[in-house]
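Lab notebook, bench 4. Still working through the backlog of constructs that have no structural model yet. Next entry is a single chain of 318 residues. Request: give me the C-alpha cells for it.
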Amino acid sequence: MVRHLLTLNDLTDKELLEILDFADEIKGNPKQYATAMKDQTLLMIFAKPSLRTRLSFEVGMTQMDGHGIYYDLSNSPMGKKESIADTARTAARYVDIVMARLFGHEDIEEYAKYSKVPVINALTNFAHPCQIIADLQTIREKKGGKQKKLKGIKLAYCGDGNNNVTHSLIEGCTKVGMDISVACPKGTEFEPQAKVIEIGGKSAERNKCKLVITNEPHEAVKDADVIYTDSWMSYHVPKEKEAGRMTMFKSYQVNSELMKHAKKDAIFMNCLPAMRGYEQTVDVIDGPQSVVFDQAENRLHAQKAIMLFLLGRMGAKG
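Model written out:
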C-alpha cells in the first residue's frame, strides 16, 4: 500500500519516533546514505513561495544520489485546464515520490487519493508535518539529554493558533508525549481548529501529556522548555487584514519579558521566515536562546528520513 504524509496523524506514535531516530542517524552519518535514492526522482510542486522547503528537499535528493524536479504551479494546468486527479495519475508514471506545497489542504488530499506514489505535504494552509518533524529532532538535540527523551518537555506556542504550524505542533507534541500550551486570541479565526484539538486531546490522554489552549501568553510559557512562534501573516491571509492582526497579536509577541516566565534554559524557535519586531523581538531571535537556524538545518535531515521511510528504503545505505 502506498504511504502518504499529509498530516502527522498519518503516522503512528511509534513511526514518528522511528523517523526521528532515523533522521538523527542520517545527520550523523550522511555518507552512509550517499546512494540511498539512486535512480529515484522527486517531483516538487510549489503553489507558494519557498526557501527552506525547496532547498532542503532538492539538496536532500542530490546528497542521496537522487533527482528533484521543481514544478511551479503558476505555469501549470493543474487545477485549471487539467484536474488534480489527472495530474497525479500522470506524474506517478514518471516519478517515484511527490512533495507539494499548496494552499488548500483538500487539494493535497485529492492529489494523494489518485497518486500511486507517496505524497508528502510540504505545507498547506492546514498542516506542516515536515517542519514539525525537524522541530522535534531539534528539541531532542537541545533538551532531550543523552537519551533524547521528549516526554515531559513542555513547549509553549504564542501567536496565531489557527495555522498550519500550530496544528502540526499539537499533533506532533502529543504523539511523542510532550506537553504543549497554545496561547492565542479568542475566537475561531485565531484558535486551533476543533478537530485538531479533539484528536490532539486523545493523543495527549494516550501518552499522558497535557494539551492546553489559553488566551494568556504568560500562563502558556510558565516553566516552558521551548518557546515557539510563527508569522502573524501566513501566505493565505489577505493583505488588508495585516493591520488588524498586528494589533490583535501584539500581546503575544515573544520578547525578553515573556521569556523570563519560561525556564532559564528555555530555547526559542521559529520555523522562519521571521519578521523581527513583529512575532518576536530582535534580542530574542538573535539571542543565545534562539535555535532557529538549527531548526532550519534539520529540515534537510528530517526530510531525507521522511522520503526514505515512505519509500520503504530506510535500509538503503550505500
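Notes after review: Strands lie at 41-46, 67-72, 97-101, 119-123, 154-158, 179-183, 211-214, 226-229, 267-270. The mean pLDDT is 96. Flag for follow-up if needed.
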